[in-house]
């Protein structure tokens, strides 16, 4: 397990624990030559419970927390909830795909309304 520290999401800080494995590689041999290939990050098949770069790009400011959860395929982990007058700020952390990547998002709820995406941040394994 590796902890990735992320700051700057709507004045909240969160620590996201990332786990999981991605180990895709194939090899083929013909005659006297051997070719080995490994997928680039965009080719890695998304694992269950983690957020891919494609899913991350799909979420936009103003989307509801429920819609973000549908796109990401997970609700993530609540990192912090802060009440600031009539608004509530909620920060959530998600495992990223591939291994050792992480995603953080901040939602803001005004009054009795719904939580809406205010900010997003990702750290991708190179």
Question: How many helices?
Answer: 2
The largest β sheet comes out as: 5 strands, mixed
Mean pLDDT: 73
The shape is elongated
User: How far is it from the N-terminal to the C-terminal residue, by CA?
Assistant: 17 Å
CATH class of the domain at 46-126, please?
Answer: Alpha Beta
Number of strands: 9
**SS strand fraction:** over 45%
So, CATH architecture of the domain at 46-126?
2-Layer Sandwich
Can you give a write-up of this model?
The protein has 126 residues and is mostly beta strands. Helix content is 11%, strand content 50%. The strands form 3 sheets. Strands 5, 6, 7, 8 and 9 form a 5-stranded mixed β-sheet that branches. The protein has a two-stranded antiparallel ribbon with strand order 1-2. β6 and β7 form a beta hairpin. It starts with a strand and ends with a strand.
Structure summarized in a few sentences:
Helix content is 11%, strand content 50%.
Question: What keyword list fits this structure?
Answer:
single chain, mainly beta, Beta-lactamase Inhibitory Protein, Chain:B, domain 1, 5-stranded mixed beta sheet, two-stranded antiparallel ribbon, elongated, disordered N terminus
